[in-house]
């Protein structure tokens, strides 16, 4: 049975490989950073099991490793890797392969969708092929492995070249690769700490009574603001839905929950376009393209975000209370 733990172990193995390669090249700080992260991925289940058993020491060790990651992050300078393939060879390969280059990338969402839709019904000799919890994430991990093999087949390249290229990109991204993990944790912290309840109390005290429009506007702007703060609309959504969406818009004003949720998320995505906290969208492309300003992507898409937000809010106001 394929479980999400296998995906974490696979990520850990790749991170340890990246650490080993950096260590061989004399990049001590970079090697230590990826080594610690790989160990955290590999031992996460053990830490949780020991914590449930009443042994806090592994969790404390993991916490110390996280602090060490934060101390090492500023030391990660851009490391220029020696190109194994010349620019002329890359261009010739791209022209030869053409649209075939998109096949491995398209396999990732396709396989993930198939697993999410039918994974619960797949079995071998009466045993379920996929564990039910976090089946979509398990499918995503499987899709990435399949895409790696597909890319090697399409490009007629050795499999280890894909690992080397992945390592090169990870070193180029650096500590920003951790931001999605940190932001997801931040959203959970906000939710568990009662930020949603505090927002609900503040909204009830400030918003004019009986004004559905004002309530909807605060919800939409709140999705943008919290996404800017957290860098992730998925982290902002439970906070705003718990604070304003569910108790006020849905229960008090009768808003359609499906429309509110879908268009509220789109408002949050407008915030994603405006924040460096969404590093995987805004900072990583700037680093990979070696733009002069790390915020060039954000500047380029600012007015697009504003116009999309205005159009989304107008449509939401027209549809959500029907």
From TrEMBL:
Top-level taxon in the UniProt lineage: Bacteria
Keyword Membrane belongs to the record: yes
Alphabetical keyword list: Membrane, Transmembrane, Transmembrane helix
Annotated TM spans: 6-23, 32-51, 106-130, 136-157, 169-191, 211-237, 258-278, 298-321
InterPro entries with a match to the protein in the record: DUF979
Protein name: Permease
Species lineage: Bacteria, Pseudomonadati, Pseudomonadota, Gammaproteobacteria, Lysobacterales
């Amino acid at each position: 049975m394929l479980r999400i733990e296998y995906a974490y172990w696979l990520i850990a193995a790749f991170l340890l490989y990246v650490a080993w390669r950096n260590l061989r090249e004399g990049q001590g700080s970079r090697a230590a950073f990826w080594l610690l992260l790989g160990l955290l991925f590999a031992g996460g289940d053990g830490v949780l099991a020991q914590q449930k058993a009443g042994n806090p020491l592994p969790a404390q060790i993991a916490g110390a490793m996280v602090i060490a990651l934060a101390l090492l992050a500023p030391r990660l300078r851009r490391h220029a890797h020696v190109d194994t393939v010349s620019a002329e060879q890359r261009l010739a390969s791209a022209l030869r392969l053409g649209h075939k280059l998109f096949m491995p990338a398209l396999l990732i969402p396709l396989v993930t969708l198939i697993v999410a839709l039918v994974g619960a019904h797949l079995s071998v000799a009466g045993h379920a092929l996929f564990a039910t919890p976090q089946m979509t994430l398990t499918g995503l991990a499987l899709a990435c492995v399949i895409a790696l093999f597909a890319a090697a087949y399409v490009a007629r390249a050795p499999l280890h070249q894909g690992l080397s290229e992945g390592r090169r990109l990870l070193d180029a991204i650096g500590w920003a690769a951790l931001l999605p993990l940190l932001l997801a944790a931040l959203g959970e912290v906000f939710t568990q700490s009662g930020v949603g309840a505090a927002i609900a109390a503040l909204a009830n005290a400030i918003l004019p009574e009986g004004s559905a429009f004002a309530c909807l506007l605060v919800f939409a702007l709140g999705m943008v603001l919290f996404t800017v703060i957290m860098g992730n609309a998925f982290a902002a959504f439970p906070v705003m839905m718990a604070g304003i969406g569910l108790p006020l818009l849905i229960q008090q004003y009768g808003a359609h929950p499906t429309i509110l949720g879908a268009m509220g998320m789109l408002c949050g995505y407008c915030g994603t376009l405006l924040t460096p906290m969404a590093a995987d969208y805004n900072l990583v492309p700037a680093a990979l393209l070696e733009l002069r300003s790390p915020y060039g992507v954000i500047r380029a898409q600012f007015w697009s975000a504003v116009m999309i937000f205005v159009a989304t809010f107008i449509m939401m106001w027209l549809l959500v209370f029907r």
